[in-house]
Protein backbone atom coordinates (compact mmCIF):
# COMPACT_ATOMS: atom_id res chain seq x y z
CA UNK A 1 0.00 0.00 0.00
CA UNK A 2 1.38 3.40 -1.01
CA UNK A 3 0.35 6.56 0.82
CA UNK A 4 0.07 9.24 -1.88
CA UNK A 5 -1.29 12.17 0.13
CA UNK A 6 -2.03 12.87 3.78
CA UNK A 7 -3.00 15.68 6.13
CA UNK A 8 -6.24 16.35 4.26
CA UNK A 9 -9.80 16.80 5.53
CA UNK A 10 -12.83 14.59 4.96
CA UNK A 11 -11.89 13.15 1.58
CA UNK A 12 -14.47 11.55 -0.68
CA UNK A 13 -15.69 10.87 -4.23
CA UNK A 14 -12.52 9.54 -5.93
CA UNK A 15 -12.64 9.28 -9.72
CA UNK A 16 -9.98 8.03 -12.14
CA UNK A 17 -10.22 10.35 -15.15
CA UNK A 18 -7.81 11.31 -17.92
CA UNK A 19 -4.90 9.49 -16.29
CA UNK A 20 -5.23 11.20 -12.91
CA UNK A 21 -7.01 10.67 -9.64
CA UNK A 22 -9.67 13.27 -8.85
CA UNK A 23 -11.25 13.49 -5.40
CA UNK A 24 -12.98 15.97 -3.12
CA UNK A 25 -12.06 17.34 0.29
CA UNK A 26 -15.45 18.11 1.77
CA UNK A 27 -14.22 20.10 4.74
CA UNK A 28 -11.94 22.27 2.60
CA UNK A 29 -14.63 22.77 -0.06
CA UNK A 30 -12.27 21.62 -2.81
CA UNK A 31 -12.02 19.14 -5.67
CA UNK A 32 -8.43 18.14 -6.34
CA UNK A 33 -6.35 16.10 -8.74
CA UNK A 34 -3.37 13.93 -7.87
CA UNK A 35 -0.87 13.05 -10.59
CA UNK A 36 1.72 10.30 -10.85
CA UNK A 37 4.37 12.45 -9.16
CA UNK A 38 2.17 13.03 -6.11
CA UNK A 39 1.39 16.63 -6.98
CA UNK A 40 -1.96 17.94 -5.74
CA UNK A 41 -3.83 20.61 -7.69
CA UNK A 42 -7.09 22.29 -6.68
CA UNK A 43 -9.43 22.39 -9.70
CA UNK A 44 -12.70 23.47 -8.04
CA UNK A 45 -13.44 25.53 -4.93
CA UNK A 46 -17.04 25.21 -3.79
CA UNK A 47 -18.26 25.08 -0.20
CA UNK A 48 -20.73 22.21 -0.05
CA UNK A 49 -21.28 19.33 2.32
CA UNK A 50 -21.46 16.77 0.73
CA UNK A 51 -19.30 17.60 -2.30
CA UNK A 52 -19.62 14.66 -4.71
CA UNK A 53 -18.96 14.80 -8.44
CA UNK A 54 -18.52 12.85 -11.66
CA UNK A 55 -17.93 13.61 -15.36
CA UNK A 56 -20.32 14.05 -18.27
CA UNK A 57 -19.54 12.27 -21.56
CA UNK A 58 -18.24 15.56 -22.99
CA UNK A 59 -15.62 15.68 -20.22
CA UNK A 60 -17.16 18.39 -18.06
CA UNK A 61 -17.05 17.85 -14.32
CA UNK A 62 -20.53 17.90 -12.75
CA UNK A 63 -20.94 18.29 -8.99
CA UNK A 64 -23.75 18.06 -6.47
CA UNK A 65 -24.10 21.44 -4.77
CA UNK A 66 -25.80 21.53 -1.39
CA UNK A 67 -26.12 25.32 -1.14
CA UNK A 68 -27.44 25.63 -4.71
CA UNK A 69 -29.56 22.46 -4.45
CA UNK A 70 -28.51 21.79 -8.02
CA UNK A 71 -26.05 20.04 -10.28
CA UNK A 72 -23.32 22.43 -11.43
CA UNK A 73 -20.85 21.93 -14.27
CA UNK A 74 -17.29 23.18 -14.37
CA UNK A 75 -16.83 24.97 -17.67
CA UNK A 76 -13.60 25.38 -19.64
CA UNK A 77 -12.87 28.74 -17.99
CA UNK A 78 -13.26 27.21 -14.52
CA UNK A 79 -16.64 28.77 -13.73
CA UNK A 80 -19.48 26.75 -12.25
CA UNK A 81 -22.74 26.80 -14.23
CA UNK A 82 -26.18 25.46 -13.35
CA UNK A 83 -26.92 22.15 -15.05
CA UNK A 84 -30.01 20.73 -13.30
CA UNK A 85 -32.30 21.78 -10.45
CA UNK A 86 -32.44 19.32 -7.54
CA UNK A 87 -34.50 21.45 -5.16
CA UNK A 88 -37.67 19.40 -5.59
CA UNK A 89 -36.08 16.10 -4.58
CA UNK A 90 -35.58 16.55 -0.84
CA UNK A 91 -35.42 19.32 1.75
CA UNK A 92 -32.26 17.62 3.05
CA UNK A 93 -30.26 17.88 -0.16
CA UNK A 94 -28.49 15.18 -2.16
CA UNK A 95 -25.42 13.03 -1.68
CA UNK A 96 -23.65 10.98 -4.34
CA UNK A 97 -23.70 10.99 -8.15
CA UNK A 98 -22.72 8.68 -11.00
CA UNK A 99 -23.01 9.51 -14.70
CA UNK A 100 -23.17 6.73 -17.30
CA UNK A 101 -21.91 6.74 -20.89
CA UNK A 102 -25.17 8.21 -22.22
CA UNK A 103 -25.04 11.17 -19.90
CA UNK A 104 -27.73 9.87 -17.56
CA UNK A 105 -26.88 11.21 -14.09
CA UNK A 106 -28.07 9.31 -11.03
CA UNK A 107 -28.18 11.35 -7.82
CA UNK A 108 -29.19 10.05 -4.41
CA UNK A 109 -30.08 11.45 -1.01
CA UNK A 110 -31.12 10.44 2.48
CA UNK A 111 -34.40 11.29 4.18
CA UNK A 112 -32.75 13.32 6.94
CA UNK A 113 -30.10 15.97 7.53
CA UNK A 114 -26.92 13.92 7.77
CA UNK A 115 -24.96 16.79 9.35
CA UNK A 116 -27.36 16.63 12.32
CA UNK A 117 -26.83 12.90 12.74
CA UNK A 118 -29.24 9.99 12.15
CA UNK A 119 -32.79 10.56 13.38
CA UNK A 120 -34.08 8.73 16.42
CA UNK A 121 -36.19 5.64 15.79
CA UNK A 122 -36.90 4.42 12.28
CA UNK A 123 -34.71 6.01 9.64
CA UNK A 124 -36.54 7.81 6.84
CA UNK A 125 -35.92 6.14 3.50
CA UNK A 126 -33.74 7.76 0.87
CA UNK A 127 -34.03 7.86 -2.92
CA UNK A 128 -32.23 7.69 -6.26
CA UNK A 129 -33.15 10.29 -8.89
CA UNK A 130 -32.39 10.38 -12.61
CA UNK A 131 -31.31 13.51 -14.48
CA UNK A 132 -31.38 13.11 -18.25
CA UNK A 133 -29.56 15.77 -20.30
CA UNK A 134 -31.75 18.85 -20.51
CA UNK A 135 -34.52 17.41 -18.31
CA UNK A 136 -35.68 17.80 -14.73
CA UNK A 137 -34.72 15.31 -12.03
CA UNK A 138 -37.18 12.49 -11.41
CA UNK A 139 -37.10 9.92 -8.59
CA UNK A 140 -36.57 6.40 -9.98
CA UNK A 141 -36.03 4.42 -6.74
CA UNK A 142 -36.90 4.88 -3.08
CA UNK A 143 -36.86 3.01 0.25
CA UNK A 144 -33.07 2.94 0.51
CA UNK A 145 -32.24 3.54 4.17
CA UNK A 146 -29.08 5.55 3.49
CA UNK A 147 -28.04 5.58 -0.19
CA UNK A 148 -24.33 6.17 -0.59
CA UNK A 149 -21.92 5.21 -3.39
CA UNK A 150 -23.26 4.18 -6.81
CA UNK A 151 -21.80 2.53 -9.90
CA UNK A 152 -23.02 1.53 -13.37
CA UNK A 153 -21.85 -1.67 -15.04
CA UNK A 154 -19.71 -1.60 -18.18
CA UNK A 155 -22.67 -2.57 -20.39
CA UNK A 156 -24.75 0.24 -18.91
CA UNK A 157 -27.51 -2.14 -17.86
CA UNK A 158 -27.06 -2.36 -14.08
CA UNK A 159 -26.95 0.31 -11.39
CA UNK A 160 -25.52 -0.74 -8.02
CA UNK A 161 -26.28 1.39 -4.95
CA UNK A 162 -24.64 1.08 -1.53
CA UNK A 163 -27.20 1.13 1.29
CA UNK A 164 -25.00 1.93 4.28
CA UNK A 165 -27.63 1.34 6.95
CA UNK A 166 -29.02 -1.93 5.58
CA UNK A 167 -25.52 -3.37 4.97
CA UNK A 168 -26.13 -4.29 1.35
CA UNK A 169 -25.49 -3.40 -2.24
CA UNK A 170 -28.76 -2.96 -4.12
CA UNK A 171 -28.95 -3.74 -7.84
CA UNK A 172 -31.33 -2.32 -10.46
CA UNK A 173 -31.85 -3.01 -14.15
CA UNK A 174 -31.36 0.13 -16.25
CA UNK A 175 -33.82 0.65 -19.13
CA UNK A 176 -33.03 2.43 -22.39
CA UNK A 177 -34.58 5.62 -20.98
CA UNK A 178 -32.56 5.36 -17.77
CA UNK A 179 -35.42 4.29 -15.53
CA UNK A 180 -34.87 1.47 -13.04
CA UNK A 181 -36.58 -1.86 -12.42
CA UNK A 182 -35.77 -5.34 -11.14
CA UNK A 183 -34.68 -4.22 -7.72
CA UNK A 184 -32.71 -6.90 -5.85
CA UNK A 185 -30.09 -7.40 -3.18
CA UNK A 186 -26.93 -7.49 -5.28
CA UNK A 187 -24.83 -8.46 -2.24
CA UNK A 188 -25.53 -8.81 1.48
CA UNK A 189 -22.57 -7.54 3.48
CA UNK A 190 -23.14 -8.85 7.00
CA UNK A 191 -22.45 -6.06 9.49
CA UNK A 192 -20.49 -3.88 7.07
CA UNK A 193 -21.57 -0.37 6.12
CA UNK A 194 -20.71 0.29 2.46
CA UNK A 195 -19.89 3.86 1.50
CA UNK A 196 -18.24 4.67 -1.85
CA UNK A 197 -18.11 1.84 -4.40
CA UNK A 198 -16.74 0.93 -7.83
CA UNK A 199 -16.95 -2.01 -10.22
CA UNK A 200 -14.18 -3.96 -11.93
CA UNK A 201 -13.72 -5.69 -15.28
CA UNK A 202 -14.84 -9.06 -13.84
CA UNK A 203 -18.13 -7.61 -12.59
CA UNK A 204 -17.17 -7.57 -8.91
CA UNK A 205 -17.63 -4.54 -6.64
CA UNK A 206 -15.26 -2.86 -4.23
CA UNK A 207 -16.79 -0.97 -1.33
CA UNK A 208 -15.21 1.23 1.34
CA UNK A 209 -16.37 0.97 4.95
CA UNK A 210 -15.87 3.76 7.50
CA UNK A 211 -16.54 2.09 10.91
CA UNK A 212 -14.81 -1.17 9.99
CA UNK A 213 -11.81 0.56 8.39
CA UNK A 214 -11.44 -1.56 5.30
CA UNK A 215 -12.25 -1.97 1.63
CA UNK A 216 -13.77 -5.23 0.44
CA UNK A 217 -14.17 -6.80 -3.00
CA UNK A 218 -17.36 -8.83 -3.36
CA UNK A 219 -18.96 -10.79 -6.18
CA UNK A 220 -22.62 -10.41 -7.03
CA UNK A 221 -24.32 -12.63 -4.44
CA UNK A 222 -22.00 -11.52 -1.63
CA UNK A 223 -18.96 -13.81 -1.78
CA UNK A 224 -15.95 -11.94 -0.38
CA UNK A 225 -13.04 -12.01 -2.83
CA UNK A 226 -10.48 -9.70 -1.19
CA UNK A 227 -10.08 -7.32 1.75
CA UNK A 228 -7.78 -4.33 2.22
CA UNK A 229 -7.29 -3.31 5.86
CA UNK A 230 -6.99 0.43 6.60
CA UNK A 231 -5.89 2.40 9.67
CA UNK A 232 -8.80 4.86 9.41
CA UNK A 233 -12.29 5.00 7.97
CA UNK A 234 -12.55 4.09 4.32
CA UNK A 235 -14.92 6.60 2.71
CA UNK A 236 -14.70 5.65 -0.96
CA UNK A 237 -12.60 3.83 -3.52
CA UNK A 238 -12.07 3.78 -7.25
CA UNK A 239 -10.18 1.65 -9.75
CA UNK A 240 -7.84 2.88 -12.45
CA UNK A 241 -7.67 1.51 -15.98
CA UNK A 242 -4.75 -0.58 -14.74
CA UNK A 243 -5.09 -2.91 -11.71
CA UNK A 244 -4.78 -0.28 -8.99
CA UNK A 245 -7.29 0.60 -6.28
CA UNK A 246 -7.31 4.15 -4.88
CA UNK A 247 -8.85 4.63 -1.45
CA UNK A 248 -9.67 7.89 0.33
CA UNK A 249 -9.93 7.66 4.11
CA UNK A 250 -10.07 9.82 7.21
CA UNK A 251 -10.51 9.64 10.98
CA UNK A 252 -14.28 9.66 11.48
CA UNK A 253 -15.70 11.26 14.66
CA UNK A 254 -19.33 10.27 14.07
CA UNK A 255 -22.03 12.21 12.29
CA UNK A 256 -22.86 14.38 15.30
CA UNK A 257 -19.34 15.91 15.22
CA UNK A 258 -19.24 16.38 11.46
CA UNK A 259 -19.35 20.17 11.57
CA UNK A 260 -16.86 20.65 14.44
CA UNK A 261 -14.25 17.90 14.02
CA UNK A 262 -10.84 19.04 12.72
CA UNK A 263 -8.49 16.06 13.19
CA UNK A 264 -9.49 14.28 9.99
CA UNK A 265 -5.97 13.45 8.75
CA UNK A 266 -7.49 12.59 5.38
CA UNK A 267 -5.38 10.29 3.25
CA UNK A 268 -5.16 8.89 -0.28
CA UNK A 269 -3.65 5.42 -0.68
CA UNK A 270 -2.98 3.19 -3.67
CA UNK A 271 -3.20 -0.59 -3.51
CA UNK A 272 -2.23 -3.06 -6.27
CA UNK A 273 -5.10 -5.38 -7.13
CA UNK A 274 -5.75 -8.13 -9.66
CA UNK A 275 -8.42 -6.56 -11.86
CA UNK A 276 -8.75 -3.08 -13.39
CA UNK A 277 -11.84 -0.94 -13.27
CA UNK A 278 -14.79 -0.96 -15.64
CA UNK A 279 -18.06 0.90 -16.07
CA UNK A 280 -18.81 4.17 -14.34
CA UNK A 281 -17.94 6.40 -12.35
CA UNK A 282 -15.98 7.92 -15.19
CA UNK A 283 -12.64 6.57 -16.26
Query: What's the overall geometry?
Result: globular
What is the overall number of helices? 0
Determine the structural class based on helices, strands and strand pairing.
mainly beta
Please state the second-level CATH architecture.
Answer: 6 Propeller
Mean pLDDT, all residues: 93
Strand order of the largest sheet: 1-24-23-22
Helix content: under 10%
CATH C-level class = Mainly Beta
Please name the CATH topology.
Neuraminidase
Distance N to C terminus: 22 Å
Number of domains: 1
Catalogue the unreliable spans.
none
Query: Could you give the count of β-strands?
Result: 24
Strand content: over 45%
- At the fourth level of CATH, the homologous superfamily is TolB, C-terminal domain
| Main sheet attributes: strand count, strand direction, barrel closure | 4 strands, antiparallel
Alpha-carbon Rg, integer = 17 Å
- SSE string, helix = H, strand = E? EEEEEEEEEEEEEEEEEEEEEEEE
Task: Provide a descriptive summary of the structure in words.
There is one protein chain. With 283 residues, the chain is mostly beta strands. The chain has one domain (2-272): Neuraminidase. The protein has strands spanning 2-8, 11-17, 20-25, 30-34, 40-45, 53-55, 61-65, 70-74, 80-85, 97-99, 105-109, 126-131, 138-144, 147-152, 158-163, 168-174, 180-188, 194-199, 205-209, 214-218, 224-229, 233-239, 244-250, 266-272. A four-stranded antiparallel sheet has the order 1-24-23-22, with no helix packed on it. A four-stranded antiparallel sheet has the order 2-3-4-5, with no helix packed on it. A four-stranded antiparallel sheet has the order 6-7-8-9, with no helix packed on it. A hairpin with a 5-residue loop joins strand 18 (194-199) and strand 19 (205-209). It starts with a strand and ends in an 11-residue tail after the last strand. Keywords: Hydrolase. Belongs to the SMP-30/CGR1 family. It comes from Nocardioides panacihumi.
Amino acid sequence: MDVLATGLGLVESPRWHEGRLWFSDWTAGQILTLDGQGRLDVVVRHASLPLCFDFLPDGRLVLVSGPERALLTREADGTLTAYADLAGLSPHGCNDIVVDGRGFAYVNGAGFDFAQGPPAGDRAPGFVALVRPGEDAVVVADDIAFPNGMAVSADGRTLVVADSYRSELVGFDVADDGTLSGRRTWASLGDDNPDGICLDAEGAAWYADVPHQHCVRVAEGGDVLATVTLDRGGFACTLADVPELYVVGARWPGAAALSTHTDWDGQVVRVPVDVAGAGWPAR
